[in-house]
Amino acid sequence: MKRKHILKWLGIALGVYLLYGVLTAILVPLPQKEAAGELWSQYEARLSEDASQERVRSIEDTDSALLWRLQLIESAEREVIFSTFDLRADGSGQDLMAALYGAAQRGVRVRIIVDGLNGFLHLQNSGVLRALAAEENVEVRFYDPIDLLRPWKLNYRLHDKYLIADGSKYILGGRNSNDLFLGSYQENQNIDRDVLVVSDGGEGSSVSQLLTYFESVWSQPENKTITGKTSSQTDALQERYAALCAVHGKELAAVDWEVETAAVTHVSLLSGSPRAEAKAPELWDALVRLMAQGDDVLLQTPYIICNDKMYNDLEALAETRQLRVLTNAVENGANPSGCSDYLREKQNILSRGVDVYEVICGQSLHTKTILIGNDLSVVGSFNADMRSAYLDTELMLVIESEEVNAALREESGKYMGQSRLALHDGGTEYGVQFEEVTLPWTKRALYTILSVVQRPIRHLL
Question: What is the pLDDT of residue 1?
């Protein structure tokens, strides 16, 4: 009888905690702050300063994305900084960790920060990561790990993806650090984009801005340092690094960074708050102001989940310029929440004067890019959704260069040609390479149900 009594109260306590967790996770982030324009003011101030000497190239395919990361790590002589939303101990993830192990072995300081939720889900018991963290020159932290007493903090994630070598070269973009985005370890992969930036490292350079931002994230009080543990995985890292050098020796040893990149007029970093808390949409505000600088804007995003404020911003932009969105068709998307919301919100989006290219290309589009006029390109991690605007850490890189803009527009054109164009006036056009795909009734039913069920939590998607 006593045992049943205890179990009863334990069940009640668990139920109360779950209710507390669900309610606070939904309600605490519900009040959405307003932007004050502070980030935009900082950006404008940078434009009045002398531009640093910086060079850029875009990275479009998964094999190049992995190889450039390995080359960047191998080039480091003093320090490597690695920040990622989703690192896994799969093929490409182990390649990266082996390269970082090799850098640490030759005396390079290595600092790694991974989103705490994904770290818990995919790396908590990873012997490979623990072996890497055990190296003398390596420190690994999880950003905002799970806090059972404050479950609403699960909403605030580290969504930045970048890699810095010696404070002079970096890769930044939308790719996560696993086989879905890097290398050729699996057949089905996402389409994404990074940019490689080579800098003189001057005071006003984008790399100095990124280093300052990293230090603010690195020092957040919620972060958890991962304890290293030497094991058989230590030898495995060493062997994998040796194998990488054997396969990619020539490519890793000699990179002419100037030849591989193009000079640009200006590069500047736009960053949201590093804190694990509800955020004012300063980054969205800055992006909207940037889009207002051009008469032809192409917004490339995996999905669109906006509130009224964001919709109104898009409508205001579309009144005086051509505003087109390039995104996944629901038949092509990999995010059920995004597909469900788009099915419900499509007419609302079109009514704002926005034309939407719905891509069907056999792979999910994960690219986050804004092309403004003929000279501004904005690349990074920001999705056109409320999560990026109000909850997660995000970075976008503003590149002023007609050459880069033209190259990215050409690349985007490939996917526009494989799209169904939904026009704001109600018409529909089809790209020359568009191939219709039927959405299975099971998926359509799922998306229809989700579009209703997820309405109370749209601000968290």
Answer: 63
